[in-house]
Specification:
The complex is a heterodimer of chains A (about 220) and B (about 240). Chain A is mostly helical and about 220 residues long. In chain A, about 80% of the residues lie in helices and about 0% in strands. Chain A has one domain (about 1-220): MetI-like fold. Chain A has 11 helices and no strands. Chain B is of the alpha/beta class and about 240 residues long. Chain B has a single domain (about 5-235), classed as P-loop containing nucleotide triphosphate hydrolases (Rossmann fold). Chain B is about 35% helix and about 25% strand. In chain B, strand 4 (about 60-65) and strand 5 form a beta hairpin. In chain B, helix 3 packs parallel to helix 5. Chain B starts with 5 loop residues before the first strand and ends in a 6-residue tail after the last helix. The chains are: A mainly alpha (about 220), B alpha/beta (about 240). The interface of A and B includes residues 121, 128 and 221 of A. Bound molecules: adenosine-5'-triphosphate and magnesium ion. Magnesium ion (MG) binds near residues 46, 47, 88 and 161 of chain B.
């Protein structure tokens, strides 16, 4: 136990935590900015091909992260279509991969939450004089518990993900090493106390981030 | 009264759901500033008529005018903002009672009018609940919130669908007093109800709807006391028709 405590003082720990938050935070932001409006739109309107889009989205929610990693790796590798960007083995590549993993989760669950809002709400809001946009925003607010759950689920999915970030980031010390890849490495090296310490930190970070998200949800209610 | 301009005019209006005709109105005029009671048994099409008047749906066939303008697509925002409905099953937003009352003002970009909201809360006995989450309220309380919310932004046309169905006699009085206040201000009211006594208390004219058809329409007392159509008499006396 005392060994576990000393591990918390390792200087590289802070750096790893900071990078983890930066990568996952940026990816979640991207996925939310794109996924919530798109999910809301899909939940609000009826159009041709909707079932297909829904199917694609739901499949995307279950996409194996390592396959996304492979796809991003091939796209960003020097011979790939986006190789000129030089993003492979940088945090940017990790953000791209995590954003792709998070997007269907955010969009798909937002869609279900919005579609689940009673039709009566929309009629009521219309009758009270809301414009189209005001009406969409109000429905989204009514669905906020589900939308928050979508973001929380996506966050949990990517912060704990290891395969994709390992592939596209390369787990380079001081550059692309995040909590999950560090845990894998230290466990392999037999540094169990350090790996455990990192595991505890990962859980604490996830807990803290979810507290923040739930607060945001509460704030929206009081608006 | 007959010279008052029309607020709504319906001409050969039919409305169908899945092929079934639920509304079939040859002609009906709702005058500006009047209160028309739409009475009729359950399923006769009262709520459907109100949905058309609220522009939520377009008639399957026939023509509807609002303010002398043909309604063939969704009216402009400023036009439809003059009309509001208190639905039979009102839905309150997942916010405080006060925030629900302010919603109509909020979407219009008007200031919050705290004094007006306080007045409505008090008038409907909702003041102690102002900060409660609206969805935790009882059915009767929600119905009063819905009415207050509709009145807060001073609509020109008020469509009321059984506005007192869940209320005790005291609250029925509160609601009817508020409706009378708006009548005096010239608001046009369409009141769907199966309570004949309420129609008598509030409405200038009454229309009887049976199976989607207007059987009879006329000044309330005259129609209720001297119905000319045997089906109206049967409905009024409580012998159900069909
Ligand atoms: N969206 C809909 N789809 C299909 N049928 C509908 C729909 N809305 C109403 N109806 C049908 O239309 C008929 C008229 O319904 P409406 O709600 O207008 O009656 P009502 O006079 O308001 O009855 P109540 O007094 O019970 O409220 C009913 O038979 C109802 O089942
Ligand atoms: Mg009804």
């Amino acid at each position: 136990m005392s060994q576990l405590l000393t591990e918390f003082r390792r200087p590289e720990l802070l750096q790893i935590v900071a990078l983890t938050l930066r990568v996952t935070g940026a990816a979640l932001l991207l996925a939310t900015v794109a996924g919530v409006p798109i999910g809301a739109l899909l939940g609000l309107v009826r159009f041709r091909g909707q079932r297909l889009v829904t199917l694609v989205l739901y499949t995307g929610m279950g996409l194996p992260p390592v396959v996304v990693g492979l796809f991003v790796y091939l796209s960003l590798s020097s011979s790939g279509p986006l190789g000129v960007l030089g993003w492979l083995f940088t945090p940017t590549a990790m953000i791209v991969a995590q954003a792709i993993i998070a997007f269907p989760l955010v969009a798909g669950l937002t869609m279900s939450a919005v579609a689940g809002v009673d039709r009566a709400v929309r009629q009521q809001v219309f009758a009270l004089g809301a414009s189209r946009w005001q009406s969409a925003w109000t429905v989204l607010l009514e669905a906020r518990v589900g939308v928050t759950a979508a973001i929380v689920a996506a966050f949990g999915g990517i912060i704990s993900e290891v395969g994709a970030v390992m592939l596209v980031g390369g787990n380079i010390e001081g550059q692309t090493r995040v909590l999950t890849t560090a845990i894998v490495l230290y466990t392999r090296q037999g540094e169990f106390a350090l790996a455990m310490a990192l595991g505890v930190v990962l859980i604490a970070v996830a807990f803290g981030a979810n507290v923040l998200l739930l607060r945001l949800q509460g704030r929206l209610r009081d608006q | 009264m007959t010279t008052a301009p029309a607020c709504y005019r319906l001409e050969s209006v039919q409305h169908r759901y899945g092929g079934r005709v639920v509304l079939d109105i040859g002609s009906l005029e709702i005058r500006r500033g009047e209160t028309l009671a739409v009475i009729g048994p359950s399923g006769s099409g009262k709520s459907t008529l109100l949905r058309l008047l609220q522009f939520l749906e377009r008639p399957t066939a026939g023509r509807l005018w609002f303010d002398e303008r043909l309604v063939d697509s969704e009216p402009a925002l400023d036009v439809r903002r003059r009309v509001t409905t208190v639905f039979q099953r009102p839905f309150v937003l997942n916010r405080s009672v006060r925030a629900n009352l302010a919603f109509g003002l909020h979407v219009r970009g008007w200031s919050n009018r705290p004094a007006e909201i306080d007045h409505l809360l008090t008038a409907l006995g909702l003041a102690p609940l102002a900060h409660a989450p609206a969805q935790s309220l009882s059915g009767g309380e929600i119905q009063r919130v819905a009415l207050a919310r509709a009145l807060a932004f001073d609509p020109d046309v008020l469509l009321l669908d059984e506005p007192t169905a869940n209320l005790d006699p005291r609250n029925v009085r509160l609601v009817e007093d508020l409706i009378r206040e708006r009548q005096a201000q010239g608001v046009t009211v369409v009141l769907a109800t199966h309570q004949i006594f309420q129609a008598r208390r509030l409405a200038h004219r009454a229309a009887l709807l049976l199976d989607g058809q207007v059987i009879e329409v006329g000044p309330t007392a005259e129609m209720l006391d001297h119905a000319s159509d045997p089906r109206t008499r049967a409905f009024l006396s409580g012998d159900m028709v069909y």
